[in-house]
Structure formats: structure tokens, C-alpha cells
Amino acid sequence: MRFQQHLDDAMAAATPLLGRGRVADYIPALAAVDAEAFGMAIATVDGEVCEVGDAGRAFSIQSISKLFSLVLTLALGGDAIWERVGREPSGSPFNSLVQLETENGIPRNPFINAGAIVVTDRLHSLTGDAGTAVADFLRAETGNTLLDTDPAVAVSEAGHGHRNSALAHFLASYGNLENPVATVLSNYYAHCAIAASCRDLALAGRFLARHGVLADGSRLLTRSEAKRVNAVLLTCGTYDAAGQFAYRVGLPGKSGVGGGILTIVPGHGALCVWSPGLDAAGNSVAGVAALDAFTTSTGLSVF
Ligand code: GLN
């Protein structure tokens, strides 16, 4: 349990910030969450799990799911996805439309909404059901058979999804969707609305700390692909705050508007934090502070 004290200290550092920021309410079903909740868990490469606070409580993973849809798409379809989506930070909000027009319908990266919608489209073609593919993967890596989409959140988001609809239609107008817009969006909402805990997500992300090797010892990604996914996480995983996140935390990471952030400590483990209050870029205020404290006290970062 070499990380327990560091997790306890990280929670103590973040506690004064609980309730700060804004809970995402553009998806009405997310607004009901406990704004003061906080959890953190690390799953190490050698099988240890340490946790603190509400680490076992399920929350809406939202954009963290974009990491899993990307790695499944790479595993099943290889590099072809990079002809349809870029790998540069956008410097724009996660739901921005503006670059799509100036850049001919090719989203800047797979972690902003436009890019994730393209990845979901490709994964849907590869598997026949992108939403289920992500949930199946998470169940397999965590051993949590109850892990699934929260249908109330998916319905709530679909009912208020004008921006994502606009992005998807815009992509379709450039010929960058293979499936009907409604199919792609319902699969995108299905994986964003998966409910999982910090513990689950740390277990599910651990293969990236193991350079692509899954819980059962099989390989999902080559070592080189795992390195590349971690690089895109570092540069694009926290949207237009990716520079600030690298500065403070120094780890590849993916955030979601549910307040979760999953980070990878290559060679050591996957570390997930959750607290619902968000900053202006959509990243958890207490979560970033806790990760900052953890990487400072352990000295573990990619830098
Ligand atoms: N499902 C959310 C959306 O499309 C995901 C956004 C996020 O977590 N940043 O708006």
C-alpha cells in the first residue's frame, strides 16, 4: 500500500476546494450530483489498488469514455482513424464548432466532442455497437459486471444535445461520418453516460500504464500505440486547459464533465480522481488540486 498516505494527503489538500467550481448542468441529469463528493483511487501495474473518500461511488464518466472509444478503435481498426481526426490540441472549448469549418471537417483531436463523435462512428462500424463495446471493455477490465450506461443520463443528454447534433451534422456534411447521425449520437451518448467509480476507471486505465497490456495479460495496444495514446492524452485530454494541466499535474489525463479525471503514470499505474465542481474549461477543481498534490508528493510524473 505504498500510495495510501499520498492519497490521504492529496484528499486533505483538495478538501478546502470541495464545492468550488460549477457542477455541469447543461446535461440536466448531472445537476443532481452531490457537489461536495470526492474520491480518488490508484490501480498499480502490479495489481495493488489504493483508494480514499468516495472512490467506490459511481459517477457519470462522460468524456473519460472518449479514451476507451479511441483505444478500441485503434486496436480494431489501426491507424486509419488518423485520416479522419487530428492529434493537435485545439485551444478551444471541448464542444466548439469553429475549427471544423476552417479545417474541412477534420476535428483537431479525438478528445474534443467533434473528434470523439468521429471515433464513435468508426468504432460503431468496427463493432456494430460502439456504446456496448465501451461498456463491455470496462466490465472486462474492472471485473465489475454491474458497470453500465445510466439510461437516464443518456436520455437527458440526447434531449439537450443541440451542440453535439450540430457537430455531427457538420461532420456528415464533410463526409466524415459513415453511419447515420442519429445512430452515431445515440452511441456517443451511451458511452458518455456510463456510470463508473474512480476504482473502476483506475483499473480500466491501468493497461496504458502497462504499455498496452490488459488485466488478463493479453495486449490491446502495441507499446508504441500506448505511448502515442498517452501523448495525445497529455496534449489534448483536458481540452484548452491541457497546458495548465501538464504544468500542474504532469501526467497524461482525460477529464469529463461528470467531474472525473483519469490519469496515467506510465510504468506505475492509473490514478483516477472525482469531484463534481468544474472550472471554466470543464475540469474538476478539487480533482486537479488533488492530482497536483499527489504528483508533487510522490515525485511521479512524466517530466
Ligand atoms: N457528453 C458530454 C458532451 O458531449 C461530454 C463532455 C465532456 O465530458 N467534456 O457534452
From TrEMBL:
Q: Which GO terms describe its biological process?
A: glutamate biosynthetic process; L-glutamine catabolic process
Q: Which reaction does it catalyse?
A: L-glutamine + H2O = L-glutamate + NH4(+)
Which EC class, in a word?
A: hydrolase
| Enzyme Commission number(s) | 3.5.1.2
Pfam families, sorted: Glutaminase
Q: Supply one GO molecular-function term.
A: glutaminase activity
Q: Which annotated residues bind substrate?
A: S63, N113, E157, N164, Y188, Y239, V257
Q: Give the family from UniProt.
A: Belongs to the glutaminase family.
- This chain belongs to which protein, by name? Glutaminase
State the organism's lineage.
Answer: Bacteria, Bacillati, Actinomycetota, Actinomycetes, Micromonosporales
